[in-house]
From TrEMBL:
Pfam family, one: PAPS_reduct
Name of the featured protein: (rape) hypothetical protein
Gene3D superfamilies: Glutaredoxin (3.40.30.10), HUPs (3.40.50.620)
Domain Phosphoadenosine phosphosulphate reductase: 24-112
Species of the source: Brassica napus
Length: 270
């Protein structure tokens, strides 16, 4: 990790810009401080962050004696979105529009320095999370952090995850698993990345071998209204079990997505 950090923030007359949105980003600030490298800190206030996030920003500023340069969404755009669709429209038609107004546009506006001025570099992209946290735990600065909130975004769109769940499962949980991105990094992720696909695929294979009919139904696109009215689906992905002696499906209620938990539920209701 230290080798990558050195490559990222080489000694020069130019400073690197650190965009802290998660606790792990403090590792970059700490390394820059320890090595005397020039840096600036930039962040975004969407207007919908957790109270803990604002306290986190304050702790960082106080500890490092810096001022974070905040960007804010365009008030006219936010006002128009809320007046036309309400405060929580993203629960109905997806998070992309709200994220564009509150996050994507303000970030790129704040970082815009002309053509070729922005180079996105994540020095810890290939570093295991436990190594980053070992570095953080060795710091004298003790930051508060929400337990089980591994990936943190706006308050209405973030919830805690359970042990074994993918870190992105707590973000926009009502949407299809492959949509777990706000739009800032679309060019850097695989088009068909799916946060929870592995457990579902493994379960489907296991059930199929036992003689159970398994069907995959894409319900978050053109079929969303049908799924909502006929199957009472409000979030995706969702598992429904159709018992032999019932005319209505039973929805898998738990956030535990591991194969053992899913299998136990199926054996209980089949």
């Amino acid at each position: 990790m230290l080798h990558l950090l050195r490559l990222w923030i080489k000694p020069s007359r130019h400073s690197g810009t650190i965009l802290p949105s998660q606790l792990e980003d403090v590792a970059l600030i700490e390394y820059a401080r320890l090595t005397g490298r020039p840096y600036s800190v930039f962040s975004l206030d969407t207007g919908s962050l957790n109270p803990e996030t604002y306290r986190f920003f304050d702790e960082v500023e106080r500890h490092y004696g810096i001022r974070i340069e905040f960007m804010f969404p365009d008030s006219v755009e936010v006002q128009g979105l809320v007046r036309n669709k309400g405060l929580f429209s993203f629960y109905e038609d997806g998070h992309q529009e709200c994220c564009r107004v509150r996050k994507v546009d303000p970030v790129f506006q704040g970082l815009d320095g002309g053509a070729g001025s922005l180079v996105k570099w994540n020095p810890v992209a290939n570093v295991e999370r436990n190594h980053v946290w070992s570095f953080l735990r060795a710091m004298t600065f003790r930051l508060t952090h929400c337990t089980r909130y591994v990936s943190i975004g706006c308050e209405p769109c973030t919830r805690a995850v359970l042990p074994g769940q993918h870190e992105r499962e707590g973000r926009w949980w009502w949407e299809d698993a492959k949509a777990k991105e706000c739009g800032l990094h679309k060019g850097n992720i695989k088009k068909d990345a799916k946060a929870m696909e592995a457990s579902y695929t493994e379960l489907a294979d296991k059930l199929a071998r036992s003689g159970v009919k398994v069907v995959k139904f894409r319900a978050d696109g053109d079929q969303k209204e049908f799924a909502k009215q006929e199957l009472q689906l409000g979030s995706f992905p969702t598992i429904l079990v159709f018992p032999k002696n019932s005319s209505r499906p039973i929805k898998y209620p738990s956030e535990k997505r591991d194969v053992d938990s899913l299998t136990s539920f199926f054996n209980l209701v089949r």
